[in-house]
Amino acid sequence: MSRIIAGAAGGTTLTSVPGQATRPTTDRVKEALFSRLDAYNVLAGAHVLDLFAGSGSLGVEAASRGAAAVDLVESADRAAAACRANADAMNQVLGWTCVRVHRSKVETYLNRVPEDALWDVVLMDPPYPLEDAPLVTILATLVPHLAGGAVVVLERSSRSGEPDWPDGIERFADKKYGETRLWYLEPV
Questions:
Q1: What does the record list as coiled-coil region(s) (predicted)?
Q2: What b/e readout covers 12-28, taking b as 16+ CB neighbours within 10 angstroms?
């Protein structure tokens, strides 16, 4: 059972995606990820994009910790329903609409956002079988929408090699947690 770890809604239990189609980020990995983002001081007032959102647990965690706006992007029906439930719960705690859900494929969503849309933090947890080529295409489409000083966090299987990053973005850190590796990227 997933929960919000800290912030305004700390301890709140989240709605999970039914079935085995998603791979939730463990509390251990989520806690390490947000400790690092807190150390970078990038969450307060940030515009956050959670791609391949699953239940939306990473995005609502960011909202709980002070993000100004969070967009959850998820294409699967059951996962999008869980995102909506978790977004509604977070928005109720905050007393305003901070978290929005977009039921869309990631590629479609990124190709439709306005040119001037910018994000400070992007959280990406694509399905582990996603090949490097489509991942690199998604990252390349994302680059023009990264604010100065933005941080992109990509969660992948620790068995996956490092992708060839597209122009405009580079890795500045990574950390392995058992089967999971977090890649930290920034615009250049």
A1: none
A2: bebbbbeeeebebbeee
